[in-house]
Design goal:
single chain, about 425 residues, 13 strands, binds adenosine-5'-diphosphate, binds magnesium ion
Length: about 425
């Protein structure tokens, strides 16, 4: 069997693995059920693609979005690797032929949606294939606790019946414990090898600006960097408003939200991916699996929904390793909201501990000795002094200035 590093060099021209990739690949090759928890941009695709290339047979990849499947199939095809996706809009007889190719045609990858897996013909043919690996990409879609729950993901476990001897790899960037537990349970993992990489992103700067005129600040930032960006807003209407505001200021922009027709979704996304538009203004419906290496800034015009979603959304910048920025624009009313939330949760010490642990997870704050945060203002010193209370509430952490947090922390200290 060819060594993974040779496959990496030959097809991808990369010279080294990213953290944890090699360990994951080896576990998969040893036939283990494997769970890869890597941040966005961590290189999850290679974790199933390389083992599949190292072995005879075909790898079945479950993926939630047509756009993701197409992207990956295209990039594999460009490397001369035979891969196909069962997209929508194919006739029964085309489907029949495609599936035949997976049995007899030396295909290495078959991408399909969980809904497609429910089709009887598909199941019947998968049973006949020489499957070497089952990969479940964006595996958090299986969990109701995640933000992208897809009921059909619960049927994936059926693949185990169709191919009882084949091992499964689940991949996600969502490390929420509830989600992780659901994935393990729903995919019938008995003793999975779990690989979890630190979510620390050294090239990301997290910034918070207090700005009562958010529009103006947004314009300034985007004009300063003149580079590919995402602007997250709270609702569908704002995606359109903000994108036309930007266009009126000569910043090319497009928009994306869950209510758009598929055609519009595709064409707006394409314009942004190919840099015909600098800015994508979107709701949180946008972004899953986006692999655009040169995104320079992600700007939140409204408060992010949770620390998980913030991490995922902010994590879409700087995937090429260049210095990149995640910016939150807040104003007075955001602060009032957050202060109220903060004071409301303070008496609940358990919740507060939970948030603290989450923060440690996501932003790689370590306990004890090397306590640090990667925010731009002077949280390092601050956290050393006030770690017990200062980082209790992520909203406060992200949105309030130092002094407010110190004040709030003191109030908290007085309460316990
Ligand atoms: P994820 O699915 O974890 O978000 P991807 O699989 O889409 O990440 O990979 C992100 C980017 O990193 C891709 O452009 C990919 O080509 C690149 N990449 C993956 N592995 C390596 C590696 N070992 N060396 C350099 N670049 C890599
Ligand atoms: Mg991915």
């Amino acid at each position: 069997m060819e060594h993974p590093i040779n496959i990496l060099e030959r097809y991808w021209k990369f010279t080294a693995f990213k953290p944890n990739q090699e360990a994951i690949i080896n576990a998969v090759l040893e036939g283990e059920d494997t769970f890869a928890l890597l941040p966005t941009g961590g290189g999850k695709s290679l974790c199933f693609q390389i083992p599949a290339l190292a072995k005879k047979g075909i790898c079945i990849v479950i993926s939630p979005l047509i756009a993701l499947m197409k992207d990956q199939v295209e990039s594999l095809n460009n490397k001369g690797i035979k891969a196909m996706a069962l997209t929508s809009g194919i006739t029964y007889s085309q489907l029949d032929t495609l599936l035949d190719n997976c049995i007899y045609g030396n295909y290495k990858f078959l991408y399909l949606s969980p809904e497609r897996l429910q089709q009887e013909l598909v199941q019947e043919r998968i049973r006949q294939m020489n499957v070497n690996l089952i990969a479940v990409d964006e595996a958090h879609c299986i969990s109701q606790w995640g933000s992208d729950f897809r009921p059909a993901y619960k049927n994936i476990v059926l693949l185990r019946q169709l191919q009882p001897t084949v091992n499964v790899i689940a991949l996600t960037a969502s490390a929420k414990p509830d989600v992780v537990n659901d994935i393990v349970k729903e995919l019938d993992f008995i003793q999975p090898k779990i690989f979890k990489h630190s979510f620390y992103r050294p090239n990301l700067g997290y910034m918070v600006f207090h700005e009562n005129d958010k529009h103006y600040r947004l314009e300034t930032i985007l004009k300063k960097y003149k580079a590919s960006s995402i602007v997250y807003v709270r609702n569908r209407k704002s995606t359109i408003e903000i994108s036309s505001f930007l266009e009126s200021k000569n910043i090319s922009a497009t928009f994306y939200h869950g209510g758009l027709a598929n055609n519009d979704k595709d064409s707006n996304m394409d314009a942004w991916i190919h840099n015909q538009k600098q800015v994508m203004v979107a709701t949180n419906a946008f972004g899953m699996g986006i692999d655009k290496p040169d995104v320079k800034t992600v700007i939140h015009l409204n408060l992010p929904e949770s620390i998980e979603s913030y991490f995922q959304e902010a994590g879409r910048v700087g995937r090429n390793g260049d210095k990149a920025f995640a910016v939150i624009l807040k104003n007075n009313s955001d602060e009032i909201l957050v202060k109220n939330q903060f004071l409301k949760v303070l008496p609940n010490v358990d919740l507060v501990k939970q948030v603290y642990r989450k923060l440690c997870n996501y932003f790689q704050i370590s306990y004890g000795e090397g306590e640090y945060l990667t925010f731009d203002f002077d949280f390092n010193t601050f956290c050393k002094t006030y770690n017990f209370a200062s980082i209790l509430c992520y909203n406060a952490l992200l949105l309030l200035d130092r002094n407010s947090i110190i004040t709030l922390s003191k109030q908290f200290k007085n309460k316990i």
